[in-house]
Amino acid sequence: MRYDRILEELLNRDDFLVVGRSVVRTDALDKVLGRAKFTADYVPRDTAVVKVVRSPHPHALIEGINIEPALELPGVQTVLIAADVPGENQIGYALPDQPFLNDVKTRFVGDPVALVVAADKGSAVEGADAVRVKYSPLPSVLDTTDALRDGAPLVHEGGNVALTTKIRKGSIEEGFSEAEVVIEDLYDTPYQDHMYMEPEAAYAIPEGSGKVTVIGGMQSPFLVREKVAHILGWDLNQVRIIQALTGGAFGGKDDMGPLVCAKAALAAVKTGKPASLIFDREESVAYSNKRFPARIKYKSGADKEGRITAIDVDITLECGAFANRAPFWLWRQTAHAAGPYEVHNASVDGRAVYTNKVFGGSFRGFGDVALHFAAESQVDRLAGELGMDPVELRLRNILKPGSRTTCDQLLDHSVGIEECLTKVAEASRWSSQKRKRNGSRVTGFGVGCAYHGISTSRSTPDWSAASLILNQDGSMTYRTGICELGQGAPIGHAKIVAEIIGAPMESIRIEVPDTDSTPNAKPTHGSRGLMLGGTAAADAAIKLRERMVRVAADMLGCPEGEVDLRDGKASKKGEPGETIRFPELAEELYNRGVSPASYGFYASPKRYFDPETGLGVNYSVYTFAASVVEVEVDTETGVCEVVKVWPAMDVGKAIDPLVIEGQIHGAVSQGIGFTIMEHLKLKDGVVLTPGFKDYVVPSALDTPEYAPTIIVEEPYQHSAFGAKGVGEPAIISVVPAITNAIYDAVGVRLNMLPATAEMLHAAMRRGAR
Amino acid sequence: MRPLPGFNLHRPTSLGEALELMGALKSVKPIAGGTDLLPLMRDRAITVEDIVDIRGLHELKGITVEDGTLRIGALTTLTEVLESPLVAEKASVLREAVGHIGSVQTRNQGTLAGNICNASPAADSAPALMVIGAQARVSSARGVRRVPVEELFAGPKMNSLGKDELVTEILIPELPSGSGAAFEKLGRRRGITLAVVNAAAYLAMDGKKCVDARIALGAIAATPIRLPEVEAAYKGRELTPEAIEESSRACYSLVNPVDDVRASADYRREMACVLVKRAIVKAHARAGGGQ
Fold this sequence. Notes:
The complex is a heterodimer of chains A (769) and B (291).
Chain A lengths: L5 H6 L16 H5 L6 H4 L5 E7 L5 E7 L1 H4 L4 E5 L24 E2 L5 E7 L2 H10 L1 E6 L6 H5 L12 E9 L2 H6 L3 E9 L11 E6 L5 E5 L4 H12 L6 E5 L8 H20 L3 E4 L2 H7 L2 E2 L2 E9 L5 E13 L5 H10 L10 E9 L5 E2 L6 H19 L3 H8 L19 H11 L8 E3 L2 E13 L9 E8 L5 E5 L8 H13 L6 E3 L20 H26 L6 E4 L2 E4 L2 E7 H11 L4 E7 L4 E2 L6 E2 L4 E13 L5 E11 L6 H21 L4 E2 L2 E2 L17 E2 L3 E3 L16 H4 L1 H13 L10 H11 L2
Helix pairs in contact in A: 8-9, 12-13, 12-20, 15-16, 16-17, 18-20
Chain B lengths: L7 E3 L4 H10 L3 E4 L5 H6 L7 E4 L9 E4 L2 E5 L4 H6 L1 H6 L1 H7 L5 H6 L2 H6 L7 H7 L3 E6 L2 E6 L4 E3 L2 E2 L6 E7 L6 E8 L10 E10 L2 E10 L6 E2 L1 H7 L6 H9 L1 H4 L10 H22 L5
Parallel strand pairs in B: 1-3, 2-3
Antiparallel strand pairs in B: 4-5, 5-10, 6-7, 6-10, 8-9, 11-12, 12-13, 13-14
Helix pairs in contact in B: 5-8, 10-12
């Protein structure tokens, strides 16, 4: 089925009912009025509180744990250590390198050693202080350079390199020999904290013997179920996971959901009573996963015409204490190394390196932010060396239908980056914009492009499921395992259902994901929530629609092809007079014994890759984005203000333009924070900035002016209405666009982010235009 | 973050009663807005057994002018200061500084007197109050005294008040015509942020000649500081752009800030010069300088 042609081929209509229109989200009012329920809202007063006892050392052997002093405190109910874990004491995501509770050694400041379960928060904190852990500190490695030295202390047995990646395509020797100019440099990108408004939270309720329910913030209820069952040593069907509305996630809760839910579940099962674990901000910033830092050595060359002839890229990813998602992250950086350009000669090497610091993990952009920061800085510099306009050089190399990616993947359709870049240059009047000085303030302009493979890579099976029930009163119940994190993907599913069934949006109730009843949609990550989950929704809706049309055709006495479903009514096309309202139609389905429920399932086209060369089909489709940014740099203080952003994105098909704009605006703020503001400072592995006071994120006052979003629609054949994911691609291009604009303004490049005022001030001191 | 520790809460309804409590209790702090006190208590940076809630002391509310002196009661919130036409008219530099304090929510809750008594070296209202010669009226059961605002600062988060004393109002003298003042702040974003450095300047002009100058800097030392050397250099001089540039550069060697997570000492020194220059230039223009 050509899912991008549902309108023409299945619905037989010329125009959309709700798809492509900006609608008010059905959950908006509850959220604005504070009625929406998040995890902590489910926790009754007097529920037991779980507190994690954490290592104060970056690297230490555990010689002994004495829990007795804690158990003697009146409010403390129990203290759990590794020996109390009934299942396997291991919760590593990609590699089995992350003990759930440590009893041998700890690998970062914050590594969990015990769980105190107490009657209230005060007792829990006192209990955690009272647990006596005897540590024998080990020498630690606090950066990747140290970690890679001969004889460096080992974070894990088997060496400090967790894994490596590579691509070999064409011949870089030949490529560089054709180059007129070659640029080589190092690009460093730092940790970034997600700073979601709602910190990590879980509430676990034991349900008799052999069952536990956990309500929590997360991005993948079925992954959480798997990890909780694994820790408890139980079967999957003994664990029920409910994803409460989640107050921001950005990837962070994909990793933290299982860690937090499993701790609450263990406490509840061990005590036989409900237990809650809610992180405070300090714990969240100091001990939860962060954007992986990366150091990218990037060499690229271009010929006289501005064609990029070769790239030689070397990526060192800092894992922190555990690999977590590093294999997928590093692979993504490796696979996207050239940026959205066709380059025939590429050599890419990557390594993920352990250090004794807080572990990295999922975060919007997933490696592509750091990679594009390097790649797009290089492209600008090649243009500069050649005396060519940076937009022009990009257009000479840009991916088009028929082009091949860094991994030699043929892109046969849905490649809209050329249009994004052309339109964004036009809208910003790129060719006539000039840097200008006003007192100490200098204005500059920069451009950035990006591409981002949607969903999971290489040969990982990728599928999604959803279910839809037509209730007796004509209302609909929609179930998806795709999570609402603020981004609105499930609302997008409902719009797809509404379009196909002709049901009013308000008649579709999206249920909270619950592993006891919701189909497994796989995770809400990789910008796959709408594309994969929404296509499963389309499959469910198409199946139910067929039955509704069949019954309606019989009731209306017309051929099935002439039945029109819209506004919650069935009618004969062109004869809107005689209608059957959905309550009546629903009742008829039930009376006739026609199933009113359907299960949708969708699998992505197969992908594959050659581990020797790194070549193959890595992602089923890519979303493309381009941004132009105007900055103003104060040359006396180094303060950089992002004044205006012109965003463009090829989204395949906009299911809801307003939601897309919301994603872009939010991502731009997050990108501004990453580029010029957010700075997680550590000393000896201790996070020194564990809160909003000193981990500074952009506020409303730092929000730039936005030009209208340019939405390019190059539909993807294998997703509902042709839609592609937008959440992650939205952050990538703005980061290099800002640094390129800073260069345009003041002639300095900060290859080490964040380009804070102080850093920029120092760089200008060293040599400004 | 730990839960707030327990304490005894006292709610006097008159100043006399409050001062009596402050004198009698051993480990005591007054609370008004609580925007600084409560986080300090939660972090165990302050431990107290008794809290005296002064919000019932209606006599400490409001902004008035008496014999030319602007009087701001200790319970006046930062929002009230920001929105007061009297403050805008008589002490616009204070209004400018208060607009930089915290967020709308903290300004609604926190008080001007609290911003001073908390004695943060980065308090945004401090440099502004210092350059316009503001004083605090301090009461205790022992009596009443007036203290220049800069003398209320004893060290980082330490004020010079006796345990039994309360600031009851902030007094701002009438500023002569031909004078002007300005406030400048550098934070790590455009709002809701602690100062990396802040500065205020006050100039009184007689034609082209500067007859009085006061300059204050915050977040640069253990307390907000005045810069008497620079002030002296301005007095009696014509303030040409070159003179301003030269004397503001002198700040570099006059201050001795620390490195912390917000900025390096060297950047703070550099920014002290920039902010002093900008504040002087603005104050000069407001004083009708060169006219």
